[in-house]
Amino acid sequence: MSRQSGIKINQFQLAVLLDESDKEFFKSIVSNNVYCLHCRGFTQKGIDIEEIYLTKFNDVMVYGKCKVCNGEVGRLFEFGKENEFSIRANKLRKSIKVS
Ligand SMILES: [Zn+2]
C or N: which end of the chain has fewer Cβ atoms within 10 Å? Predict the structure, then answer.
Protein backbone atom coordinates (compact mmCIF):
# COMPACT_ATOMS: atom_id res chain seq x y z
CA MET A 1 0.00 0.00 0.00
CA SER A 2 1.50 3.33 -0.98
CA ARG A 3 1.53 5.83 1.81
CA GLN A 4 0.05 9.19 1.09
CA SER A 5 2.14 12.26 1.61
CA GLY A 6 1.20 14.57 4.43
CA ILE A 7 2.26 15.47 7.91
CA LYS A 8 2.55 12.55 10.26
CA ILE A 9 0.66 13.25 13.47
CA ASN A 10 0.17 11.28 16.65
CA GLN A 11 -3.05 10.36 18.43
CA PHE A 12 -2.75 13.30 20.82
CA GLN A 13 -2.48 15.73 17.94
CA LEU A 14 -5.43 14.05 16.28
CA ALA A 15 -7.47 14.41 19.46
CA VAL A 16 -6.82 18.16 19.40
CA LEU A 17 -8.12 18.37 15.85
CA LEU A 18 -11.36 16.51 16.39
CA ASP A 19 -14.42 17.93 18.07
CA GLU A 20 -16.81 15.67 19.98
CA SER A 21 -18.86 14.58 16.97
CA ASP A 22 -15.72 14.02 14.89
CA LYS A 23 -14.37 11.81 17.68
CA GLU A 24 -17.54 9.72 17.78
CA PHE A 25 -17.44 9.36 14.02
CA PHE A 26 -13.76 8.46 14.02
CA LYS A 27 -14.21 5.89 16.79
CA SER A 28 -17.14 4.18 15.11
CA ILE A 29 -15.29 3.93 11.81
CA VAL A 30 -12.06 2.50 13.19
CA SER A 31 -13.96 0.02 15.35
CA ASN A 32 -16.00 -1.60 12.58
CA ASN A 33 -16.17 0.31 9.33
CA VAL A 34 -12.77 0.06 7.65
CA TYR A 35 -12.66 -2.19 4.61
CA CYS A 36 -10.16 -5.04 4.83
CA LEU A 37 -9.06 -6.52 1.50
CA HIS A 38 -7.96 -9.74 3.15
CA CYS A 39 -11.21 -10.32 5.03
CA ARG A 40 -13.16 -9.05 2.01
CA GLY A 41 -15.36 -7.00 4.23
CA PHE A 42 -15.42 -4.44 6.96
CA THR A 43 -13.10 -5.12 9.86
CA GLN A 44 -15.16 -7.04 12.37
CA LYS A 45 -12.97 -6.25 15.36
CA GLY A 46 -11.65 -2.89 14.29
CA ILE A 47 -8.10 -1.89 13.53
CA ASP A 48 -4.89 -1.16 15.38
CA ILE A 49 -3.89 2.32 14.32
CA GLU A 50 -0.24 2.58 13.36
CA GLU A 51 0.16 5.85 11.50
CA ILE A 52 -1.93 8.97 11.09
CA TYR A 53 -1.34 11.64 8.47
CA LEU A 54 -2.82 15.04 7.93
CA THR A 55 -3.03 15.38 4.15
CA LYS A 56 -2.53 18.56 2.19
CA PHE A 57 -6.32 18.79 1.85
CA ASN A 58 -6.65 18.65 5.64
CA ASP A 59 -8.13 15.20 5.52
CA VAL A 60 -6.93 12.54 7.91
CA MET A 61 -5.41 9.34 6.55
CA VAL A 62 -5.11 6.45 8.94
CA TYR A 63 -3.04 3.31 8.42
CA GLY A 64 -3.23 0.28 10.60
CA LYS A 65 -3.79 -3.41 10.86
CA CYS A 66 -7.00 -5.40 10.83
CA LYS A 67 -7.41 -6.99 14.26
CA VAL A 68 -8.80 -10.18 12.71
CA CYS A 69 -6.23 -11.03 10.03
CA ASN A 70 -3.43 -8.54 10.77
CA GLY A 71 -3.65 -7.30 7.18
CA GLU A 72 -2.80 -3.71 6.31
CA VAL A 73 -5.75 -1.37 6.09
CA GLY A 74 -6.16 2.32 5.44
CA ARG A 75 -8.98 4.79 5.66
CA LEU A 76 -9.34 8.41 4.61
CA PHE A 77 -11.44 10.70 6.77
CA GLU A 78 -12.61 13.72 4.84
CA PHE A 79 -12.53 16.18 7.71
CA GLY A 80 -11.02 18.80 5.41
CA LYS A 81 -14.52 19.70 4.26
CA GLU A 82 -15.31 21.00 7.72
CA ASN A 83 -14.35 24.60 8.14
CA GLU A 84 -13.56 24.41 11.84
CA PHE A 85 -11.46 21.33 11.36
CA SER A 86 -9.41 23.09 8.70
CA ILE A 87 -8.79 26.03 11.01
CA ARG A 88 -7.53 23.72 13.76
CA ALA A 89 -5.49 21.74 11.22
CA ASN A 90 -3.78 24.87 9.91
CA LYS A 91 -2.89 25.88 13.45
CA LEU A 92 -1.40 22.46 14.08
CA ARG A 93 0.56 22.69 10.83
CA LYS A 94 2.16 25.93 12.00
CA SER A 95 3.03 24.43 15.37
CA ILE A 96 4.76 21.45 13.80
CA LYS A 97 8.21 22.19 12.52
CA VAL A 98 8.74 20.24 9.33
CA SER A 99 12.35 19.16 9.16
ZN1 LIG B 1 -8.80 -8.48 7.90
Answer: C
pLDDT class of 5 with cuts at 50, 70, 90: confident
What's the 60 CA to ligand 1 centre distance in angstroms? Answer: 21
Q: What's the average model confidence in pLDDT over 24-52?
A: 96
17-35: buried (b, 16+ CB within 10 Å) or exposed (e) per residue?
bbeeebeeebeebbeeebe
More confident residue, 68 or 97: 68
Eight-class DSSP state of 59: -
Cα of 67 to ligand 1 centre, how many Å?
A: 7
In this structure, are residues 64 and 49 in contact, taking their beta carbons and an 8 Å threshold?
yes
Cα–ligand 1 centroid distance for 82 (angstroms): 30
Mean pLDDT of 3-26: 91
Q: Please state, in angstroms and rounded to a whole number, the distance separating the CA atoms of residues 34 and 1.
A: 15
Q: What is the pLDDT of residue 32?
A: 93
